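Can you make up a protein sequence with its backbone structure tokens?

===
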Amino acid sequence: MGNYGRFPLRLVRGRGSEVYDESGRRYIDLLAGLSVCALGHCPEIPARRVREQLDRLWHVSNLYHIPIQEELASRLVELSFADQVFFCNSGTEAMEACLKLARLAAARIHGKERPCFVAMENSFHGRTFGSLSVTGQTHYQEPFRPLLSEVRFCRFGDLASLASRLDDSVAAVILEPLQAEGGLHAPPQGYLKGVRELCLKHGALLVYDEVQVGMGRLGQLFAYEHYGVEPDILALAKGLGGGFPIGAMLARHEVSRHLVPGTHASTFGGNPLAMSAALGVLEELTRPGFMEAVCNKADTLSGRFDRLLRQNSAIRERRGAGLLQGLLFDRPVALLIARLHERGVLTGSAGKEVLRLAPALNIPDALLAEGLDILEDTLKEPWSA
């Protein structure tokens, strides 16, 4: 179907941060499948775990206990704020689970229905009806209205705007700790702490969408650790499987205990193959020194972007954090992305005017430098929308 606007590239194989097209041409991947391939393409340890699992068990459904599912859940609980985990297959499914749990738990906790959600302008949470309803970008929503009616939007980074939307009908406040698809907007200093305080004041749950910004992307395993403010419910996907489809919802017990049999389910969620891949990813991400290396690469990326900002008048600012950073230009970046493809570098956008880079967390320093050199050289040539 014609719902994807694809670039004219036909990629057939990859290893690490390099991919190849049908003709054998090599590309440096600085986008990592939209932050999915956290360890690059075909990473050794997750791939080995999946191959071994292929010969043991693929699927039995959640009618039964699945030991490898329990192993991954225990590991995520051990590493996070959460007490329990629900597994699904994608980021938008994880957000749907978060919405259902938040509304259910809020009603049970307060003894009355709390039907409303407060979400952020410029946010992106997925393409299904619930996640789309809390996505604060009208061009995604317009063709599919009416959506969920009980959603109020406020300005990201503005505590007064949030406070004006809160009352005792609000089940939860939903946000990305760093807005990714909406333009790589980082929160102001102290903002998330203020959000947490307002949620406590009004009895609203706090839901983080870490689908893109979690799993080491900002230099710590979870994005909330980067900002020092824990949520009540959290959505994960993308990097968790390192390229294998998986989604997860993490929550505190006082919230998650309300998700009893019959309230929510997933046929394929928590299947042994996805669990194997995610356990392999976590094995790498939690290896001593791994996150320090991510932070060093992020510093390199920041430094190079700051240099480009000083050199190029078309660049307005650097955005983002960790290994999810971008450059805001004074013009659309589609042609620049195409030019970079011609020179063997894969990048993306976050909005029409923001060039987005989200390389694998373990991209070799030399390969990152090579890709950034090509970007710098490309920006010396004239280009426009």
Residues 11-30+288-379 form a domain with the Aspartate Aminotransferase, domain 1 fold (CATH 3.90.1150.10). The chain has two domains: 11-30+288-379, 44-285.
